[in-house]
Amino acid sequence: MLRPLRRTGGDLMRAPKGNGQAMTGRHPDFSLRLARDADDLRAAQRLRYRVFVEELGGDGDLVDHDARLERDRFDPFFDHLLLIDEARDGAVVGVYRLLPSDRLADAGQFYSEDEYDLTPLRDTGRKLLELGRSCVDADYRGGTAMHRLWQGLADYVAARKIEVLFGVASFHGTDAAALAGPLSLLHHKYLAPPELRVRARAYQPMDLLAPDEIDRVAAMKATPALIKAYLRLGGFVGDGAFIDHAFNTTDVCLVMDTERMSARARATYARGRA
Question: How far is CA 144 from CA 27, 137, 215, in A?
């Protein structure tokens, strides 16, 4: 199993809590586009450094602490969706990293294949999209920034006729027992159907509590907000969690089949698209 570097987190939906959209007297003027050149990529990597390294303590073999860039060997193969605040001199304030399956031969593998056996997804023959490194500048959390990123993602998915989205999301900590409530709730209520059910390679069972033993209110409160957002859109979880001791996280793999999204969820996901 290829494991090229210590993980720096941010897979799929990592968005640490901030203090809302603190723009001190001016409103953002958002635009969305894919990174076009090396300067754009560096701007994305600088934002990722602030979030994943400075805020969350991540590291990696290719992280450049002098230049303050969070990067890895997969960056050249991914598209990087940028949220830009034109009112802040074109600052990159949000990022999503995207790898469509038609580019998989160049990358050699999906990033999350270090943790999960993705054979069920590969075997569908459908168009896949791996999501990762999602983050928003601290000053823009609690506002519309993440929703605008989702709008850009919806456009990307529609333009490329993507059928299944997936990626890894993290809980803080490596004590599965301490996460028994949320992990068990995810397993019992949101387990992916067999044809989409990826499995953790270093398998940590998630069904630690029986359904009638789960405090559902407490379990949902303990689940990261962005994981809950994807579940509301009709997302599922794979079989088993992956304990990442190096990064002090417990990871789950989220899968979303666009055909299974309800009309209401689809409208929420794509709201605001031109």
Answer: 11, 12, 31
